C-alpha cells in the first residue's frame, strides 16, 4: 500500500475557533457520517456496512454500549460516532509489512495518534526484535512460540500482565481470562479500571451488584431523569432519541455538568421531520452548571432538603415502608446528612440556592426517578462516595426495583460490561473461580491481581516483565504517559492484539509483537462454519453480533482463535481445557459459559432470540440486595470538594466530538466550535484575565501533585491555545490523550483506584512568542485523500 498522506501539512496553529453549537445531530451528523464512510470504505461497502449496523441479523457497533430499543429497529440504527467507528474498522486501507519496512518505529513515534489510526487495518503478524527499529513479518506459529517461551520463562506467573479492551466479545473474554487463570495469575487490568470502576465499587456496596438497574423502557417512562457528568451528544448519541421519547411522555430532564454540551440542550433527530426542517427537541429542562467535583455536595445537599421536607410534612417524601423493610444504615446516614452545611454545598457546587430548591422539588414531585452518570462522576478522588450519595438519594424515596426508576451508569466501550461478566476482573469472587475449577478440572489462583494502575507500577518497578493487550491502546488510555511508556519499555516482551495501528505498538518491550485480529464487522469462518459472538450492553442485555465483511487480509484471525491457539502452544496438547474445540466452535464456548456463570443457562438458544436476553438483576427484578447486610445500604461519606488554589485552575480531560476514547477520527470538535486542532484549553474569560493572559494565547500546562514529604511534583504538556468558553470559573477542560501526561499515576479514586482525570490542579505558563516556539507541535501530513 501507499501511505495515506497528502501534500497539505497540518499545524496546530491553524486551529479555528467559532461559537459552540446549541444542538446535537441534525443534517450535519448525517453528512459527516457519510463522508467518513465514503473516505474509508467507498460507496458500496458503506451502504452494506451501515445497513447491518446494530440490526438483529447484523453486527454490534464497536463504539459505545448504549442498548437498542427492544422490539424495534430503525432503518439507520446508529449515530454519527457509530458510523465513524465502523468506517475506521471497515476501512479498505491497510498497513502491511511494506509499511513497516518503510517506517522505523522511531519515525512512527513522531506521528500523531490521528495519523497512525488513519493508515488502515493491520494485515500480518509482526515482530520487532531486540535492538531493531523496524517491525518485520512473523508467522503465527512462531509468534505463539515466542510468547509461550517468554511466559514459561517468568519466575512467577504474577510477572505477566494481561490487559483487556472493552470491545472484546464475551466469547473472547471468557477464553482469555480462562487462559490467564490457567497460567496462574489474576493480573487482568482492563478499561473498566480507568472508567467505571468507581461505579461498580459503589453499587456493589450499596445495592449488591455493580450494574445499572434500568432498561430503555424505564427511561422512556420515567418522571424525572438526572443526567450527571455525562455528555450523551458525543459519547452516547443514541441516548438522545430515548431522552426525546421520555420528554414526549412527560419526563423532566435535569443536566448536571461543568460544560453546557450541545447534546444536553437540544436534539435534532435526522430521521424525523422536525429534526431536519424544525428546531428539534429540547432535552434539558434545567441545567445545573456544576463545578468540577461538586456532584457529591449536590447530592448531599439535595438529600438534606428532602429530609427537611419530610420533617415539615411527615409521610410525604420518604418511602418509609421501603426504608424499614429493604434498607440498612438509614438513620446513621440521615443524621450525617442533616449536619451538612448548605453554604458549603453552594460553594462546592457553584449553584444557587434557588437551583438547589428547584431540583429538590422535582425529586419530591417525581414518582419515578432515574440518575444517569458517566466518567464525570467516576474519575474523581471521591468518585465512589459521590455515586453512593446519588444512590442514597434514590433509595430514600424507594426509587429502585420499580418501573421508570433506578440507577443508570452509562458504560463506554461496547462490551466493557460483558467482559467483566465473563470474568475479566482482577478480584473475581470465589464462586466464579470455583465454578471454573469444577468445569475444567484446573486450579485457578485466588490471590487478587493487578488493576491498571497497579500494573503500570509493577512494570515500572520491574516486578512484571511480560505485557499482553487484547485490543485497546493501553499507553494512550492510561494516566501519566511518560511513566507508563517507560514502564512498558522495561518489559522483556509486549504483545498487542489489534485491528489498527496505534501508539502502544511503538512503545514496546525488548521484543514487541503485533497480532492482527478480525474486527466486529468482519466475517469469521472457522472449521468451515461462520462463527458469531455475543456482547452485553449497558443494561445487561446479551445479544449476538454477526460480522459480514470480507476481512482486510487472509492472515487475520479472530480474538477467540488467537487466545485458543496461544493456549495450545503454552500448555501443550494434554491440557484439560478443550482449546482446539473452542477455537473452531464458539457454541462450545457458550455452552461452557452457561455452566459456569449464573444467568447464562441455555445460552446458545436464548442468545439467538430476536433481541437476545436480559441477565438477572436482583435489585431490579425482586428488590433483593446481595450486600453484606442483605439489604440496600446507606453509606456515610464525608463531604469532599476541591477549592481552586490561588493562581491555579482545575483541569478535566475529555473527548472531542471527533474521537472515541483513544481513537481520533478527525481534528474537529463541531459542537464546541473547534476546527483543525486538538491542543486547546477551554477556559472562562474571567480566568483568562485574572491569570494575566489573552484569548487565543498559547500556553504550557503544568500539573502540580503534592508528595507526602510536602514537595510538589510537576508534569508538563505544552503548546495549548486558550479558548474562551462558558466553563465554571476556576475550571478548565482539554482533550485526552494529549493531557494524559498531566495525570499523576498515584492520583486515584479512593476504593476503586480509578485515575482521577477530572480534577487535576494545573498552572498556566506563557510560551515564548517566537515562530519556533509557536510551531513546537510536530506537523503531520494530513492523512485524508487529496
Automatic annotation (TrEMBL):
Family matches, as InterPro entries? Asp_de-COase-like_dom_sf, MopB_CT_YdeP, Mopterin_OxRdtase, Mopterin_OxRdtse_a_bac, Prok_molybdopt-oxidoreductase, YdeP_MopB
Keywords in alphabetical order:
4Fe-4S, Iron, Iron-sulfur, Metal-binding, Molybdenum, Oxidoreductase
Task: Spell out the residue ranges making up region: Disordered.
Answer: 765-786
| Protein family according to the UniProt entry | Belongs to the prokaryotic molybdopterin-containing oxidoreductase family.
Which molecular-function annotations from GO does this UniProt entry contain?
4 iron, 4 sulfur cluster binding; formate dehydrogenase (NAD+) activity; molybdenum ion binding
- Write down what this protein is called: Molybdopterin oxidoreductase domain-containing protein
Q: Which Pfam families match?
A: Molybdopterin
Molybdopterin oxidoreductase domain: from which residue to which, for each copy? 121-495
Query: Which cofactors does this gene product need?
Result: Mo-bis(molybdopterin guanine dinucleotide); [4Fe-4S] cluster
The record's GO CC annotations read: membrane
Quote the PANTHER family the UniProt record gives: PROTEIN YDEP (PTHR43105:SF4), RESPIRATORY NITRATE REDUCTASE (PTHR43105)
User: What lineage, starting at the top, does this entry show?
Assistant: Bacteria, Bacillati, Actinomycetota, Actinomycetes, Mycobacteriales
Amino acid at each position: 500500500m501507499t501511505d495515506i498522506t497528502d501534500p497539505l501539512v497540518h499545524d496546530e496553529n491553524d486551529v479555528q475557533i467559532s461559537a459552540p453549537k446549541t444542538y446535537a445531530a441534525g443534517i450535519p451528523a448525517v453528512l459527516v457520517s457519510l463522508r467518513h464512510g465514503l473516505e474509508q470504505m467507498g460507496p458500496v461497502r458503506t451502504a452494506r456496512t451501515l445497513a447491518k449496523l446494530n440490526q438483529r441479523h447484523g453486527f454490534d457497533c464497536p463504539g459505545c454500549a448504549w442498548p437498542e430499543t427492544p422490539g424495534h429497529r430503525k432503518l439507520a440504527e446508529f449515530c454519527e460516532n457509530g458510523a465513524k467507528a465502523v468506517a475506521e474498522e471497515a476501512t479498505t486501507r491497510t498497513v502491511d509489512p511494506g509499511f513497516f519496512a518503510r517506517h522505523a518505529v522511531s519515525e512512527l513515534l513522531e506521528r500523531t495518534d490521528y495519523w497512525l489510526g488513519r493508515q488502515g487495518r493491520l494485515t500480518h503478524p509482526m515482530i520487532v526484535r531486540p535492538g531493531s527499529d523496524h517491525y518485520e513479518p512473523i508467522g503465527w506459529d512462531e509468534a505463539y512460540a515466542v510468547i509461550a517461551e517468554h511466559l514459561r520463562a517468568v519466575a512467577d506467573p504474577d510477572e505477566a500482565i494481561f490487559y483487556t479492551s472493552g470491545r472484546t466479545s464475551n466469547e473472547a473474554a471468557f477464553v482469555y481470562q480462562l487462559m490467564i487463570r490457567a497460567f496462574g495469575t489474576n493480573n487482568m487490568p482492563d478499561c473498566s479500571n480507568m472508567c467505571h470502576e468507581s461505579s461498580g465499587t459503589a453499587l456493589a456496596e450499596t445495592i449488591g451488584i455493580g450494574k445499572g438497574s434500568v432498561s430503555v423502557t424505564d427511561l422512556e417512562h420515567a418522571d424525572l431523569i438526572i443526567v450527571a457528568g455525562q455528555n450523551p451528544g458525543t459519547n452516547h448519541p443514541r441516548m438522545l432519541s430515548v431522552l426525546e421519547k421520555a420528554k414526549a411522555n412527560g419526563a423532566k430532564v435535569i443536566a448536571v455538568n461543568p460544560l453546557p454540551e450541545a447534546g444536553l440542550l437540544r436534539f435534532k433527530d435526522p430521521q424525523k421531520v422536525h429534526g431536519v426542517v424544525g428546531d428539534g427537541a429540547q432535552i434539558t429542562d434545567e441545567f445545573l452548571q456544576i463545578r468540577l467535583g461538586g456532584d457529591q455536595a449536590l447530592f448531599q445537599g439535595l438529600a438534606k432538603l428532602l429530609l427537611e421536607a419530610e420533617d415539615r410534612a411527615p409521610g410525604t417524601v420518604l418511602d418509609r415502608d421501603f426504608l424499614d423493610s429493604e434498607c440498612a444504615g438509614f438513620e446513621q446516614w440521615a443524621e450525617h446528612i442533616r449536619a451538612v452545611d448548605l453554604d458549603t454545598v453552594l460553594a462546592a457546587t457553584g449553584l444557587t440556592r434557588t437551583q438547589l430548591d428547584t431540583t429538590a422539588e422535582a425529586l419530591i414531585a417525581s414518582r419515578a426517578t432515574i440518575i444517569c452518570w458517566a466518567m464525570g462522576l467516576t474519575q474523581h478522588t471521591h468518585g465512589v462516595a459521590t455515586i453512593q450519595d446519588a444512590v442514597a438519594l434514590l433509595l430514600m424515596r424507594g426509587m429502585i426495583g420499580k418501573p421508570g426508576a433506578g440507577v443508570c451508569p452509562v458504560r463506554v466501550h461496547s462490551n466493557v460490561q460483558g467482559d467483566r461478566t465473563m470474568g475479566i476482573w482482577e478480584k473475581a469472587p470465589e464462586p466464579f473461580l470455583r465454578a471454573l475449577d469444577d468445569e475444567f478440572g484446573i486450579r485457578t489462583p485466588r490471590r487478587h491481581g493487578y488493576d491498571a494502575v497497579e500494573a503500570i507500577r509493577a512494570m515500572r518497578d520491574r516486578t512484571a516483565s511480560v505485557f499482553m493487550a487484547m485490543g485497546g491502546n493501553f499507553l494512550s488510555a492510561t494516566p501519566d504517559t511518560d511513566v507508563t511508556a517507560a514502564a512498558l519499555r522495561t518489559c522483556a516482551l509486549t504483545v498487542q492484539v489489534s485491528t489498527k495501528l496505534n501508539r502502544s505498538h511503538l512503545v514496546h518491550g525488548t521484543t514487541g509483537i503485533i497480532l492482527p485480529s478480525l474486527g466486529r464487522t468482519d466475517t469469521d469462518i472457522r472449521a468451515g462454519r461462520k462463527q458469531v459472538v455475543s456482547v452485553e450492553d449497558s443494561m445487561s442485555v446479551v445479544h449476538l453480533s454477526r460480522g459480514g465483511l470480507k476481512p482486510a487480509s487472509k492472515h487475520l484471525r479472530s480474538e477467540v482463535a488467537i487466545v485458543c491457539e496461544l493456549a495450545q502452544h503454552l500448555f501443550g496438547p494434554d491440557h484439560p481445557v478443550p482449546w482446539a474445540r473452542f477455537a473452531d466452535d464458539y457454541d462450545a464456548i457458550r455452552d461452557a459459559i452457561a455452566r459456569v456463570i449464573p444467568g447464562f443457562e441455555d445460552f446458545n438458544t436464548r442468545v439467538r432470540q430476536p433481541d437476545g436476553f436480559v441477565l438477572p438483576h436482583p435489585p431490579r427484578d425482586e428488590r433483593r440486595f446481595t450486600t453484606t447486610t442483605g439489604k440496600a445500604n446507606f453509606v456515610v461519606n464525608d463531604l469532599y470538594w476541591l477549592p481552586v488554589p490561588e493562581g491555579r485552575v482545575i483541569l478535566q480531560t475529555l473527548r472531542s466530538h471527533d474521537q472515541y476514547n483513544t481513537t481520533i477520527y478527525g481534528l474537529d470538535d463541531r459542537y464546541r466550535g473547534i476546527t483543525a486542532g486538538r491542543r486547546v484549553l477551554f477556559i472562562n474569560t474571567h480566568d483568562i484575565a485574572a491569570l494575566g493572559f489573552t484569548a487565543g494565547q498559547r500556553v504550557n500546562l503544568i500539573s502540580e501533585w503534592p508528595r507526602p514529604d510536602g514537595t510538589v511534583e510537576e508534569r508538563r504538556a505544552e503548546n495549548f491555545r486558550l479558548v474562551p468558553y462558558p466553563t465554571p470559573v476556576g475550571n478548565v477542560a482539554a482533550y485526552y490523550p494529549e493531557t494524559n501526561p498531566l495525570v499523576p499515576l498515584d492520583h486515584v479514586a479512593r476504593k476503586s483506584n480509578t485515575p482521577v482525570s477530572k480534577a487535576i490542579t494545573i498552572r498556566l505558563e506563557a510560551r515564548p512568542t517566537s515562530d519556533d516556539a509557536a510551531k513546537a507541535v510536530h506537523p503531520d501530513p494530513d492523512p485524508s485523500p487529496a
